[in-house]
Design goal:
415 residues, alpha/beta, Rossmann fold, 2 domains, eight-stranded mixed β-sheet, six-stranded parallel β-sheet, 19% strand, globular
Length: 415
């Protein structure tokens, strides 16, 4: 049985891990599966077998190869996004690929890694697939928001004012000052990749616009595979029909409800809501004091989503991101509950809502438009018509998603 190494940027939690777990669960019957994660202090290798993740080995970031030490006895090597290459990482990648006899490397993210892995793999004759989970390979500040928190489409302004930084460990760099060097090193790393995958045509087009060397990345070796999800069958209504009789409940779920997820838009909507038309509900970690503008229900696990929604019974799922998310699982979750979405006019959020006729769009630069939108929906009784549209949306399951990946894996192995 051929062996696949999946590569993640963090540990065994979070949205990217859960999506990757969905893939591993459906691929395990055809491939032997290993998982490499990168944390602040170490790299860890796991085996995924019979739906269980088993820890195998730890590689501390103290840059010693064979000397075991306690964490308290050592100064760890701090990851830096500008460190594109590192001999310790090269050695560790070589050790993992040869020790576990890997046939395919599928990179899901490289934050907390260097860019060495694809080159090491190719020198060993190992096939490489690279997934575009966000826009990290366009800019280290992977959400493409400038210093004014405006979408930049990867086009840097001439000033040197640093852009919106989405992650503490990236705060030591100025994205505009290193962007040319960044993309030069990314393109070199791309040259060792066999296939690229992302989740929408919009994201694919942006990468092809930024990277124009068609000998390295092109329409043939760059595929679009939407995420799949497995959902239970609905046995009741999870929504409440909106009316003028009481505030309209809008549920905003996200792991982190912060500026990227539209916390400032939410606050602005509520500030001008003099008639208390909207009642916001929040699921997830709240930032920027947005819990003062609605009802916070705390954090949640993926499997608890339906229970939480059933308790709240919102009329809409609100997705107010100000960056162009590459897929947006929240949209899929909303539709799986039979609930229409209200989303911002940017990227895949706008594209998926319009393409699937699954909700309404508001202008992220003019959040007040939500009030005229809600008035129109309620006054003209458009809500149940949209609910009917949502019920007809076909949602890909995880097995169908996995089969699309397996087709590329088999293609690589046959080359």
């Amino acid at each position: 049985m051929k062996r696949i190494l999946y590569v993640l940027h963090s540990g065994v939690t979070g949205g990217t891990f859960l999506t990757n777990k969905d893939l591993m669960r459906n691929v395990q019957k055809d491939y032997e599966i290993y998982l490499l994660t990168a944390e602040y202090n170490d790299l860890k290798i796991y085996r995924y077998y019979e739906n269980e993740l088993k820890f195998i080995r730890r590689y501390p970031r103290h840059l010693n190869i064979n000397v075991p030490v306690n964490d308290s006895d050592v100064d760890f090597h701090i990851w830096n996004a500008e460190e594109f290459h590192n001999s310790w990482f090269t050695f560790i990648y070589f050790d993992i690929l040869t020790r576990f006899d890997i046939d395919i490397v599928h990179i899901r993210h490289l934050i907390n890694h260097t860019f060495d892995l694809p080159q090491v793999a190719k020198k060993l004759g190992i096939h490489v697939m690279l997934s575009m989970h966000d826009f990290y390979f366009i800019c280290p500040f992977y959400v493409l928001l400038d210093e004014n928190q405006q979408y930049c489409a990867g086009k840097c302004s001439d000033n040197r004012e640093n852009c919106y930084c989405p992650m503490n460990s990236l705060e030591n760099i100025n994205s505009k000052e290193i962007i040319l060097q960044w993309r030069k090193n990314v393109l070199k790393m791309f040259s060792y990749v066999d296939y690229f995958v992302t989740t929408s045509k919009i994201v694919k087009k942006l990468f092809l616009d930024i990277y124009s060397d068609r000998s390295i990345i092109n329409s043939e070796n760059f595929r679009v595979i939407e995420h799949g999800r497995d959902f239970p069958k609905l046995d009741k209504n999870y929504f409440e029909i909106p009316s003028f009789k009481k505030p309209v409940k809008i549920l905003c779920p996200a792991n982190n409800l912060n500026a990227m997820k539209g916390s400032h838009l939410i606050k602005e909507m509520k500030r001008v809501d003099k008639d208390n038309l909207i009642e916001f509900h929040f699921l997830g970690n709240c930032f920027d004091d947005i819990e003062e503008y609605g009802i916070a229900h705390g954090t949640y696990e993926r499997d608890d989503f339906y229970k939480k929604v059933a308790e709240i019974k919102p009329s809409f799922i609100g997705i107010f991101s100000i960056w162009p998310e590459t897929f947006c699982h929240t949209l899929t979750e909303a539709w799986s509950c039979g609930i229409p979405a209200i989303g911002t006019n940017i990227g895949v959020i706008e594209d998926r809502i319009i393409k699937n006729n699954g909700g309404w769009i508001i202008d992220r630069d003019n959040p007040k438009t939500i009030f005229s939108l809600l008035e129109d929906i309620i006054k003209n009784e458009k809500y149940m018509e949209m609910v009917d549209n949502v019920s007809k949306i076909s949602l890909k399951d995880t097995n169908a998603m996995a089969q699309e990946y397996i087709e590329i894996y088999e293609l690589m192995l046959s080359e």
